[in-house]
Amino acid sequence: MRLMAVAARWAACVSFAAITLAASAAQAGEPEVRSEPRIVSADGSLTETVYALGAEDALVGVDTTSNYPRAVNELPKVGYLRALPFEGVLALKPDVLLTTDEAEPAKTLERLAKAGVEVVQLPVARSPADTLARIREVGRVVGKEARAKAMAASIQKRVAAVEAAQSGTPARVLFLMAAGDHGVMIAGQGTAGQALLESVGARNAMADVRGYKPANREALLASQPDAIVVAESRPGQFRIDQWPQLAALDAWKQGRHYVGDSMLLLGFGPRLSQAMEAVANLLTEVEQVASNGH
Hints:
four-stranded parallel beta sheet; about 15% strand; alpha/beta; about 45% helix
C-alpha cells in the first residue's frame, strides 16, 4: 500500500510538471504545434497539384477523377465530383473540401459548409494563366505557398518557351478522347481539348462541333487533320484497330499522332507544360512535312 501511495504521488508530480512546462512555453511565446488540415480533394487536377506540392499527407480522401499519381489509389474514394455524397465526404472528418466550380450537387456543398467543413471551390483552368493561379491558390490552402510559387515560376518558363516557338500557319489538329464506356469522343468548342490546342497555337479540326460528341467515322474521314491527339482515360484504352477510318487518315499513317493520359492532356494541372510540349513536338513534325512539300 505504501508503495502504491508513493507511485501515485510521483505520477501527480510528473503531471503537474508537464502542465507547468506547457504553460511556461505558451507564456514564452513558443509556437503551438498544430496538426495539418484534413483535406478531401474532389478534382483530379487539384489532387495531382496537392501531391506535386508535397502535401499529400493532408489528404484523407479523393473523388473518382483522381487517379494520378498512382499512390492516390490507396486513398478512400468519395464518389464523382459532380455527384458528391454528403455522408461519404463527412464520414472522413475533413477540415477542407478542395474542389472546383464543377462540383455538385450544390445542396451537398451547402450541408458540408454548415457542418463546419471549409468548402474551397476553385475556377476550372482553361489556360496556362489559369493553371498558374490555381497552383498558387492550392499552395495557400495546404500551407505550401513558397513551393507553389517556385513551381508556378518553373512551369511558366517552360510554357513561355513553347509559346515563343509558335510560328507559321496554325496546324489543324483532330482531338479525340477515349472515354471508357462513352466510347471515343470528338473534342469541339468549349472543351479542355480545344483549350490545349489553342495554348500551342493549333486549330481544332472539328471546331464546328460544340462540347464532346461521339466520334462519327464519316466525319473523321472528312476532317483531314494535319495531326491527331488522343486522350485516354486509362492506358491502352484507345485501340486504333477499332477505328479503320482514323487509321486511313494521312496524319495517322505518317505517324503524326500522339496518344496520352487524359489527365495530362486535359487537366491543366502541374504537368501542363509537359502536355504543351508533347503537342508542340507533334506540330513540329507537321511543319517539317509542309516544308518538304509532302
